[in-house]
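Justification of computing resources. Each target in the renewal requires a structure prediction run like the one illustrated here; the chain below, 202 residues long, is used simply to show the kind of job we budget for.
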Amino acid sequence: MVDWDEFLVLNYLDIYGSSSQEDIEDNVKIVGEKIQEILSDLLRRGLVRRVDDRWEIEHAGREEMKRLRQEVLEGSGRRDEIILYCKEFEELNTWFKDLVTRWQVKNEGGMLVPNDHSDPEYDLAIIRELGELHKKTLKVLEKLSNVLPILKTYIMRLNRALNLVRRGEIEYLSGVDVQSYHNIWFELHEGLLRLSGLKRVE
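Resulting structure tokens:
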């Protein structure tokens, strides 16, 4: 039987390679003695290592994560359904990549220039579009989380990021140093690709 807390921690480290304990706690929402207990057990089993103040995944950890994903996929009894929903998410990912590109750079007279966010109407149009994309994304995630409840955490995290963007904290759309919509989306996308075995659509 899959230990879901361990799955979340190992999945996070598999995607990012290494992380501080603070970031792991902040993202997987497991804190205190529980997160320390999980990391210590993973360390004892040779699945992760501690380097200064960071935790890094070992090769054995990546192999264990592959095994766990396969166990989750096959053990659900709904493998084909999960893969179908992952394909639906992959289609939305193309839209999201285009949206983020337009958020970061603007076409001015045929030239791409950095978006300095000095045009509130331009930014607002993209934020509204993100809201439409978000609605479609939630429909897919709700179907997925009905099969794999562990994915509900991404619904809460994406909701929070979007709400912060709408309140004017625009770094929560694509900022790299916060739990931005982009960072959460990246983590979710990578996890679904590795779970389903689907190829990335470029």
